Amino acid sequence: MTEHLVFKNSEFMIKLLEERENEIVAEFAEICTDYALLMEGQLPTEAGSQGFFTDFPEDSNPEQYLAFGIFEANELIGIIRAVKHYPCKNTMHLPLLLLHPEKRSKGKGKSIYQWFESYTLSKGFERICIAVMKENEKAIAFWKSCGFEMGAALPPKALGKQLHDRLEMKKNFAQVAKPC
């Protein structure tokens, strides 16, 4: 469990995940059915969990991709997907930060995000960008509480059986961050 350890404190540890660890991501997805239903309008599938490691934005490449597992006492309690230098240089795109349903709304998400922000800053990035489903008011409120600002409306995106209106949210670190 420590071979790809990135961070550890008294609350949780974070490690880089590899595609060979798809089984634990699939098991985690089975626990987070609420998220799959919200996003895709269907229960999680094996192909969907495999997509955690293989689905990239069209104009990116696998070298930009990061997959993190968040663990408590060797139990996977969350996952993070990130894309470096996307959609532009010096930007970290955060397509997913998902916690176990029992770990939500207890401050753990904010602690994990604070780690991610520190990690992003330590790697020299100037901002984090996310895309949030317009109807996901809890997510919008969470990201605002983390200091994100609303950006532009993004084109609708089909996920599974759902078509979502999306909003860009971003957090700039540099006082004068270069525009994308």
Summarize the structure in words:
Helix 4 (108-122) links the parallel strand 5 (91-99) and strand 6. The radius of gyration is 16 Å and the shape is globular. The model has no long low-confidence stretch (mean pLDDT 88). The protein has helices at residues 22-31, 33-40, 46-54, 108-122, 137-145; strands at 5-8, 13-16, 65-72, 75-84, 91-99, 127-133, 149-159, 162-172. The protein contains five helices and eight strands.
Low-confidence stretches: none
Shape: globular
**Radius of gyration based on Cα positions:** 16 Å
What is the structural class? alpha+beta
Q: Strands across the major sheet, in which order?
A: 1-2-3-4-5-6-8-7
Main β-sheet, in a few words? 8 strands, mixed
Q: Number of DSSP helices?
A: 5
Distance between the termini: 37 Å
- Helix content range: 25-40%
Average of the residue pLDDT scores: 88
Percent strand: 35-45%
Count of β-strands: 8
Order of helices and strands: EEHHHEEEHEHEE
